[in-house]
Amino acid sequence: MEGKVIITAALAGSATFKANNPAVPYSPKEFADEAEKCLKAGAAMVHIHARDEVLGGFHTSEVEKVKAVYDAIKQRVPDLIVQVTSSVGTPCPVGPFEATDCVNLINNLIKLNMEARLRSIRAIKPESASLNTNTMNFSVLDRKTGAILIDNVFVNSFGMLHEFGKEMEEMGCRPEAEIYDMGGLDNWFLISKQGIFRKPYNFNFVWGVAGGHKFRPDTFASLVHALPEDSNFTTCAVGTEQYPAIMQSCLMGGHIRIGLEDNTRLPNGEMAKGSYEQVEVAVKVAACLGREPATPAEARKILGIQKRK
Fold first, then answer.
1. CB-based contacts of 279: which residues, under 8 Å, 6+ apart?
2. What is the extent of the structural domain holding 223?
3. Would residue 54 count as lying in a domain?
4. Residue 234 forms part of a structural domain
5. Which pLDDT band holds residue 87 (cuts at 50, 70, 90)?
6. Is 308 part of a structural domain of the chain?
């Protein structure tokens, strides 16, 4: 399988809506339709965030809704790897409260958020799930003016990294460590000393988030060189950084993630008709570098995934 590239399609994230691109899936059927097209185009895996149609397509961690999306995809294309996000928690209204209660309040909110983020993975036991590695700003800004549109902090404590990773590995769900900067990789190294992760280790370099690192070829190379032995890496990037990032990943022997979660357009600026059109671009990128798309079976072997029966 030397030279095979795993193409993952992130079908819908937390911040892209039909208003951004009408092809963003909300319903289980829309997810299944898009997943099938992505498989035919050359993808071996899809990454999913379930959406709540009643609430206008906002992301949700409700088990029933996440499972409905997961099941619809697996029924349509059973060989496809379906990776479930662990990033989506639940809103927690707070206050007013006494200043002396701050520490307990924060700890309780983190615990509630952990439970919400893990409950779908516990219920579904997917073959793979995302594993976020550091607490960071995770916001929406106007890239031209710097105006803050949505201000948000994404909490991923060491305890969460440990508990999420340990539980995933124990249930046979391979964690993909999401690396938003070098500090996230260093956090993974610290927790990995406890021996909770098994080989091969799987990483995803994420670029362009407002709060994470901007895509820079030299930074990408530094991350690759810092990885432990027996590692796989893929990459994704927000907006226009998507295509340069996947090209460098493919060039350096890594894998590719594309999809409407990260970018709603094609390299020429046209609106993508679906994530499958971006898969087609990724296949062309790989071909230019002498690489072929991995099948789902080949991807499982590369990533150390045991197929669910």
1. 7, 9, 38, 41, 42, 43, 258
2. 4-303
3. yes
4. yes
5. confident
6. no
The domain that holds 265 is classified in CATH as: 3.20.20.70
309 within some domain: no
223 vs 205: CA distance, rounded Å: 8
List the one residue out of 40, 12, 8, 7 whose CA is nearest residue 262.
12
Count of beta carbons in the 10 Å neighbourhood of residue 160: 22
- How many domains is the chain built from? 1
Q: Whole-prediction pTM value?
A: 0.93
**Alpha helix locations (H) across the chain?**
28-41, 63-76, 102-124, 158-170, 182-192, 217-226, 242-251, 275-288, 296-303
- In terms of Cβ atoms closer than 10 Å to its own Cβ (0-12, 13-18, 19+), residue 28 is buried
**152: how many CB neighbours lie within 10 A of its CB?**
14
How far apart, in Å, are the Cα atoms of 37 and each of 11, 41, 272, 273?
11, 6, 13, 11
pLDDT number for residue 107:
56
